[in-house]
Amino acid sequence: MTKWAVFLIFISTPIFAVLQDCSPEESAILQGKCSLHVNELMIFTDDKEVSLEVAKNISKVCQSITKCYEDIQCADAQRNKEMYEQKCQRLDYKNYLLKDCMTKVYDIINDKLVNCTEQFDYSSNNLTTKREAFTSGKSCFMSLVDTNCSSKSIAHFHSNYDSFLNILTVPPANNEKCNLVHDELTAAPCIPLQTTFMAEEMSLVTIMLKRDFSVVKRLRRVCEQLQECTVASCFFSAMNFTIRNEDTCTNIDTIQRKTDFAECHLTTILKANLTNYDCIPSNATMPSFVKRTTKPNFYDDKECAKKVMVGECGQNVTIGFDENWSRQVEL
Ligand SMILES: *[C@@H]1O[C@H](CO)[C@@H](O)[C@H](O)[C@H]1NC(C)=O
Ligand SMILES: *[C@@H]1O[C@H](CO)[C@@H](O)[C@H](O)[C@H]1NC(C)=O
Ligand SMILES: *[C@@H]1O[C@H](CO)[C@@H](O)[C@H](O)[C@H]1NC(C)=O
Ligand SMILES: *[C@@H]1O[C@H](CO)[C@@H](O)[C@H](O)[C@H]1NC(C)=O
Ligand SMILES: *[C@@H]1O[C@H](CO)[C@@H](O)[C@H](O)[C@H]1NC(C)=O
Ligand SMILES: *[C@@H]1O[C@H](CO)[C@@H](O)[C@H](O)[C@H]1NC(C)=O
Ligand SMILES: *[C@@H]1O[C@H](CO)[C@@H](O)[C@H](O)[C@H]1NC(C)=O
Ligand SMILES: *[C@@H]1O[C@H](CO)[C@@H](O)[C@H](O)[C@H]1NC(C)=O
Ligand SMILES: *[C@@H]1O[C@H](CO)[C@@H](O)[C@H](O)[C@H]1NC(C)=O
Q1: Which atom from ligand 8 is nearest to the alpha carbon of 314?
Q2: For the whole prediction, is pTM greater than 0.90?
Q3: 237: how many CB neighbours lie within 10 A of its CB?
């Protein structure tokens, strides 16, 4: 009796290390029946965009493969099962255009374009919370899919919601490489934020030139959201995403300050007549507008530059002058 109980627990634990090597009979099934299904998949494997009908056939073959391996309780079979499961998730992700769909849906969620999304934490980094959101918020999520995704994605979500939910919220066992569909789905909420952030970051130079700082506050908020979002994603940590540095978002606030300072610095450099400052030698050559980039050498002298800047831009320049002066280099 005791022996049986131990044995049953033993074989029902799906860990490779505990599983036995495959017997000759089991190996025969692996190489026979299961390999036949794998061959069926081979004829489909190709980079082209496939029709919905073909996508469905591929999913069906995939199910036969994983089912075939799943039924054999030995190490090689379970290893194959996991491998094809991941391969097939990848195929579905591509064939049903799920990346595009998820990006659009998270776009709508992030921008709060639809009311129903606000009660569900679809972007949570906590997988329990996320599962709960996608469970009780299924109909809200599906309404976004139905109105904003391709017909292939719509078909997939309608017939495979439960398996989608598992891929999304069950952490994979062996995941050092960060190349699974689960990982992409984890990163998905951050993609629209990243796009927004990068677009606005690009316009910063224009903002500084026009002295229009209205975007700065929004950029700071997007930065913080993006920072928080990317914490859970191995995709973003793998590429050393700079947003993850703590200071990045705080630094955005200094843009206006830096611009004020830089502007004063620049205009005084470009001033045609600075003969009123005794720290500037009377034979100093002033940069002409033609040679804007030429910095007069007296400007390497911080104290002299300070005197000139106070004279030209007012006493307020002295507030945090040293700090701003050393930051000047970074701008
Ligand atoms: C898809 O599978 C069905 C039934 O198994 C078959 O009749 C059809 O020809 C397949 N379509 C393609 C494009 O492979
Ligand atoms: C959301 O709800 C508010 C009132 O509750 C309504 O005024 C608004 O139009 C709704 N927005 C959308 C996108 O449905
Ligand atoms: C995730 O959320 C659940 C339920 O809200 C909570 O019990 C659990 O502690 C959270 N997990 C983490 C890692 O924060
Ligand atoms: C989503 O679909 C609705 C309804 O078709 C449309 O009004 C809206 O512009 C779409 N949103 C996006 C981000 O494509
Ligand atoms: C990421 O950052 C770490 C530490 O700063 C560095 O050692 C590593 O080379 C970086 N990796 C990439 C891909 O830039
Ligand atoms: C510069 O300013 C000094 C004193 O204010 C003045 O004498 C001189 O003519 C000015 N030079 C030019 C080129 O404007
Ligand atoms: C300016 O005069 C000083 C000495 O008074 C001299 O050392 C320096 O080289 C001169 N600079 C230029 C640009 O002529
Ligand atoms: C200087 O700064 C103070 C406080 O920071 C401000 O109230 C004042 O208006 C500033 N003066 C000028 C000329 O910008
Ligand atoms: C210099 O930096 C300080 C804080 O570091 C800031 O309060 C001040 O406004 C800055 N001054 C200018 C002219 O940008």
Answers
A1: 13
A2: no
A3: 13
